[in-house]
Design brief:
The chain has 384 residues and is mainly alpha-helical. The chain is built from 14 helices and no strands.
Length: 384
């Protein structure tokens, strides 16, 4: 992508954070309600959380790579270390919690250590035949996340990393593609393929947003007499059109869901309508200057800061503490405490991902002068 100077607006960034918080909290809340038999399995609201997670993932991974490529030293090695720093410390500590609560639930670790090891390398629920660990029914989702990260990262950064060695680039690209196929041909095949499509489209949405931004910039430059006024007029038109399209897509998603009685909330067309509607709302956010109170920003950042940890451990805790027909008040107390536990774990893992990333860069001799200056506080540069 030639134009890599695109930056998300503060409003769009906040709305993405809101979507992240909504997704994770909705997934956890609905899983808890399922455990106490208050709602059926595969509730449409809970499933929408997974859909939005894939949307956020594809969109933000593409965005981080585009921003990262501004640094000529940014390659797949640095990209991988950043993803590793974000995922694996939480995964390793989170699995200790999962193992403990599943052990209390009579699931024996030593008898299932092979399943545990496959889950750690995120190849569970693939053609290898190993299921998710214990009773954690949501863990089928994680391998897709991780290997889509790697596949897409290599797709955009592989040639830069191999210094345009096309043979090596294609071999590794084929390897990551093969792993994705192995994952998809295991359990939940249709769901996985649907989510891959949504993930890819979300990355494409970002590129379309960048092209739209470039178009607005060029069009406004044609009228040099009043460039700002022209730009604001174009942004206003874009917002109106985006609102109309988003509303239409939301209605189509709702109608399709009602028509099929929400029997399969993972259905592709329904989720494509939903994803498209949210994307056009993000376009509106990009060109809206709405200032949120600092307390709201802090609250969102706080809840988002332990989102992956909460996603990872909540089912194991719920499975042990929540039984069918438990009191809803009791469930809410447990739900709050799972959030607290997630924050405590994240404080030592998820919230330290940037420090872990810089440590690994230094360990492997990949830290640049710019990153050293940023780390020492002499120059504030955010490296993606």
């Amino acid at each position: 992508m030639k134009n890599n100077n695109f930056t998300l607006s503060d409003t769009a960034s906040i709305h993405i954070n809101i979507l992240r918080v909504f997704s994770i909290q909705t997934i956890a809340f609905c899983h808890g309600l399922e455990n106490i038999a208050a709602i059926p399995l595969d509730n449409p609201i809970g499933v929408s959380g997974f859909t939005f997670l894939m949307l956020i993932s594809g969109f933000l991974i593409a965005y981080s790579i585009i921003k990262g490529k501004r640094d000529k030293n940014y390659d797949f090695k640095r990209y991988f270390l950043r993803r590793f720093s974000r995922i694996y410390p939480v995964l390793l500590i989170g699995f200790i919690v999962i193992i403990f609560f599943d052990w209390l639930n009579k699931y024996k670790f030593l008898e299932n250590i092979d399943i545990f090891l496959i889950n750690i390398i995120l190849l569970n629920n693939s053609v290898l035949g190993f299921p998710y660990y214990g009773f954690n029914r949501h863990l089928w989702f994680l391998p897709l996340f991780w290997y889509m990260y790697l596949l897409f990262g290599w797709l955009l950064l592989g040639l830069r990393t191999t210094k345009r060695n096309y043979f090596l680039y294609i071999i590794i690209l084929a390897l990551f593609s093969l792993i994705i196929i192995i994952i998809c041909l295991g359990t939940q095949t249709t769901k996985k393929i649907n989510y891959i499509i949504i993930w890819i489209l979300s990355a494409v949405f970002l590129f379309l947003m960048i092209r739209l931004n470039t178009y607005i910039e060029k069009k406004s430059l044609k009228n040099n007499f009043d460039e700002v006024k022209r730009k604001n007029q174009l942004k206003k038109k874009v917002k109106y059109v985006s609102l109309a399209i988003s509303t239409f897509l939301f209605i189509m998603a709702l109608l399709r869901g009602i028509y099929f009685k929400f029997d399969n909330p993972y259905e592709l067309v329904y989720n494509l309508f939903l994803t498209g509607a949210v994307f056009f709302l993000l376009i509106i956010s990009q060109y809206t200057d709405f200032i949120y109170p600092k307390k709201v920003k802090k609250a969102l950042n706080f809840i988002a800061s332990y989102s992956f940890t909460l996603f990872l451990i909540h089912v194991a805790v719920f499975n042990f503490l929540l039984k069918p027909f438990d009191n809803v008040i009791y469930f809410i107390i447990i739900y709050i405490n799972v959030n607290i536990l997630s924050f405590i774990i994240a404080y030592f893992t998820e919230m330290k991902s940037e420090k872990i990333y810089h440590y690994l860069l230094k360990l492997f001799g990949l830290e640049t002068k710019t990153q050293k200056l940023s780390k020492n506080g002499r120059e504030k540069v955010r490296i993606y």
